[in-house]
Amino acid sequence: MSDAFHQRLHHVASDALSADTAQTSGMRRVEAISGSTVGSRNLWMGQTHVAASTNSGNHHHGASETAIYVVSGTPSFVFLDEEHGEIRVDTKPGDYIYVPPWVPHREENPDPENEAVVVISRTTQDAIVVNVPDLKWVGPVAVGTKDPEES
């Protein structure tokens, strides 16, 4: 049946995650929930893996809000504060991070022995990843501002 009350649930097993998604150097993203995996329209969800003693490249996620849940490891999330310079947010398993739209950031895994794994959820169905040379703002500077490409 195709009405809204008779939809089926989708199970995505951990061994079925797809690496066919946007990538950033120093990390590996895999998607679980997306339009291509389950037909979602407004949601993207997956994992990011950062190897021991590795930093990702600088990037942002365009108009997408991103929620991050730390599963394992002690990753740090780095962004630029115009007044104070680079800010590091150190995390541990069970912690959450919110990344507003357009905020350039990077993930760092300072642990010399263990991989860091996080679960990511985004408000856009596409896994928007814009790799950038540094942490300076290149898009709108506040949550809720329009995507310049929509003007």
TrEMBL record:
Transmembrane segments: none
Domain Cupin type-2 stretches: 49-119
Pfam families cross-referenced by the UniProt entry: Cupin_2
Record-given protein name: Cupin
Signal peptide start and end residues: none
Top-level taxon of origin: Bacteria
